[in-house]
Amino acid sequence: MTEAAVIGLGTMGAGIAATLAAGGMTVRGFDAEPAARSRAAGAIATASRVLGAIRAAAPGGTVAVVDTLADAVGAAELIVEAVPENPDIKAATFAAIEAAAPAGAILASNTSGIPITRLQEAVKTPARLVGMHWSNPPHVIPIIEVIPGAHTAPAIADRLTALIEGFGHKPVRIRKDVAGFVHNRVLYALLREAVALVEDGVIEAADLDTLVKWSVGLKLSVIGPLELLDVAGLDIYKAVSSYLNAALDNRAGVAPMIAHRADAGALGIKSGRGIYDYPAGAAERLGAERARRLIAVRRTLDDA
Ligand SMILES: NC(=O)c1ccc[n+]([C@@H]2O[C@H](COP(=O)([O-])OP(=O)(O)OC[C@H]3O[C@@H](n4cnc5c(N)ncnc54)[C@H](O)[C@@H]3O)[C@@H](O)[C@H]2O)c1
To answer: Going residue by residue through the chain (304 aa), what tens digit of pLDDT does each one get?
Structure first.
């Protein structure tokens, strides 16, 4: 498979396009916003440079940003949808993609958690629509969840899995099309508890972040949670979870600490204030430092 299209060239789409190209594919990218199409070239070039630093091999393919959806998908064998996380926008996008794409093309969605079965309602050929959930930044984090919906042909999920292995990322097959799939369910369990601990005054936000980064975070990059259970001992886990599980946060709604800030426009880095404050220049400095460290960790793990 050599021809790919990426629809939506925002935070995720640009890195996805660069990764597919680095794997040797000819990629055509399209975004509905002309300004996003103009910005995409820089983001794709940056992601390509990072990929070059992670992998010894020079990028094999190319990315062209085109002005119409039909130009992007007309010859594509794999089409990755990365438009905003809104079921109506995704449904309309898939209907348009299906109308312009070759009959055999794989239609893949980067949705963070909208059930794939629901997206399949938007197309006439649901057997070829499959979830392909990348993690941000998509060119650095190698895991991709492959999520078949109720109507996805097994051969489509198999072809996508093989393709992902071919460009050097790590596909993981999700067995049930559950909300949030697996990556976000695990992450959101951790986020809920972290927010609750800060909200309850058990720990300061900065101390919680330090603690998790240098304990759980460091460990989890080399040992998975179920492997960790075997190391700790299931007798220990049974004893601790018998009293601790009942103490963990299990609120179904959004924590007030988050809702109050979000409603007041304190959205995080993008608004200069969230859990923390970001004075002028801080976001750029932090972004560059985190990217440098993440790439260093990835390279170390690849080489270890
Ligand atoms: N940002 C993340 O950390 C992350 C991680 C994993 C998955 N995702 C998922 O990836 C998808 C994209 O997220 P993002 O963060 O890149 O969003 P984004 O807002 O940065 O980018 C979306 C892009 O889609 C474009 N767009 C909107 N409607 C379109 C249409 N009809 N046709 C073509 N382009 C259109 C927008 O102009 C924008 O540039 C979402 O489903 C999101 O949930 C995001």
So the answer is: 799 999 999 999 999 999 999 999 999 999 999 999 999 999 999 999 899 888 776 658 999 999 999 999 999 999 999 999 999 999 999 999 999 999 999 999 999 989 999 999 999 999 999 999 999 999 999 999 999 999 999 999 999 999 999 999 999 999 999 999 999 999 999 999 999 999 999 999 999 999 999 999 999 999 999 999 999 999 999 999 999 999 999 999 999 999 999 999 999 999 999 999 999 999 999 999 999 999 999 999 988 8
Q: Does the C-beta of 33 come closer than 6 Å to ligand 1?
A: yes
Ligand 1: nearest atom to the Cα of 12: 16
72 ligand 1 Cβ < 6 A: no
For residue 109, which of 69, 80, 71, 136 has the smallest C-alpha distance? 80
Number of the ligand 1 atom closest to the C-alpha atom of 112:
43
CB-ligand 1 contact for 70 (6 Å cutoff)? no
Partners of 5 in the β-ladder: 28, 79
Domains of the chain: residue spans and CATH: 3-173 (3.40.50.720)
The residue contributing the CA closest to ligand 1 atom 38 is 10
**134 beta partners:** 144
The 10 Å Cβ neighbour count of residue 174 is 17
Cis before 137? omega within 30 = yes
